[in-house]
Design goal:
This protein is an alpha/beta fold. It is built from 14 helices and eleven strands. The strands form two sheets. The chain has an eight-stranded parallel beta sheet. A three-stranded antiparallel beta sheet has the order 7-11-10, covered by helices on one side. Helix 5 links the parallel strand 4 (91-95) and strand 5 (112-117). Helix 2 runs parallel beside helix 3 (48-61), helix 3 packs parallel to helix 4 and helix 8 crosses helix 14.
Length: 312
């Protein structure tokens, strides 16, 4: 499964773990990297020193490449960007903003930059400012989302840019990976399935919520305020959607979800917390190690397209 992305990142398989806030910490990132994929530490809104510590702990567990996902609207984004360069991180993925002002510093430090995009316009802009590859993330994904589905977004972005495209959103097995390659992607990024792995440090209640999820169990909140987020339905999503329908203000809605993801991930409150997960949650049936999951994905994908020579 050698592709432009495995060559670019120095990894064995074209499988990248999503940089999920509160979920993607060093145990998971190292587990994925050791299994031949690319693990990511999710910086989210954390202070720079927390990110530095996470990077150093990951290095104790793996000598393979791993990356950091930076949410560019974080108040600590400038400091985290510097930490990534100082600590010799190989790869950065970015979301919620434009990484252009950090490009020179990252390039000089040998960091590969892969923005997450949900539109063709943003993909072209990121290519112009020096991105090495792009993650085209469809609306099926968990957490903050765009509107286009993976099926229509990936081929349009592949056609619009000359750098490798990584497909994300709704991918949970070899069939999804094979489909992504058929659409022109050169790797995939998966989040939800990696939440339910042995190396994932999230609360057991969170993992069990994913295992129990059915096809109709994901909800999108925040469309009325322009910040759509996908999570598994629970008391919090019900209340949020009821408040949206009643015309609640941005401030009221924000107050409802404040600290919600932490409550679910750390405290295990899957009733009133935000159980962010993609539509693929219903396809996650068991808790595997990162190694077992990646080997399963590779085997399934190879059985479908291994002889077609389309990895190139």
């Amino acid at each position: 499964m050698k592709t432009e992305v495995t060559e670019l990142l120095g990894i064995e398989y074209p499988i990248i773990q999503g940089g999920m806030a509160w979920v993607a910490e060093y145990h998971l990132a190292a587990g994925v990297s050791n299994a031949g994929g690319l693990g990511l530490i999710g910086a989210a809104s954390a202070p720079a020193e927390w990110v530095r510590e996470q990077i150093r702990e990951a290095k104790k567990l793996t000598d393979k490449p791993f990356g950091v996902n930076i949410m560019l609207m974080s108040p600590y984004a400038d400091e985290v960007a510097k930490v990534v360069a100082e600590e010799g991180v190989k790869v950065v993925t970015t979301g919620a903003g434009n990484p252009e002002k950090y490009m020179k510093m990252w390039k000089e430090a040998g960091v590969k930059v892969i923005p997450v995009v949900a539109s063709v316009a943003l993909a072209k802009r990121m290519e112009r400012c020096g991105a090495d590859a792009l993650v085209a993330e469809g609306t099926e994904a968990g957490g903050h989302i765009g509107e286009n589905t993976t099926m229509v977004l990936v081929p349009q972005i592949v056609d619009a840019v000359n750098i490798p495209v990584i497909a994300a959103g709704g991918i949970a097995d070899g069939r999804g990976i094979a489909a992504a390659f058929m659409l022109g992607a050169r790797a995939v990024q998966m989040g939800t399935h990696f939440v339910a792995t042995k190396e994932s440090m999230v609360h057991e209640n969170y993992k069990n919520a994913i295992l129990k999820a059915k096809d109709i169990d994901s909800r999108v909140t925040g469309r009325t305020i322009g910040h759509p987020v996908r999570a598994l339905r629970n008391q919090m999503t019900k209340q949020y959607l009821d408040m949206e329908k009643a015309g609640a203000s941005f401030e009221e809605l924000e107050h409802l979800t404040l600290g919600g993801l932490r409550r679910a991930v750390v405290d295990g409150d899957v009733v009133n917390g935000s159980v962010m997960a993609g539509q693929s949650a219903a396809m996650v049936k068991e808790i595997l190690s990162c190694e077992e999951l990646i080997q399963k994905l590779v085997k399934e994908t190879d059985a479908l397209i291994g002889g077609l020579n389309i990895y190139g």
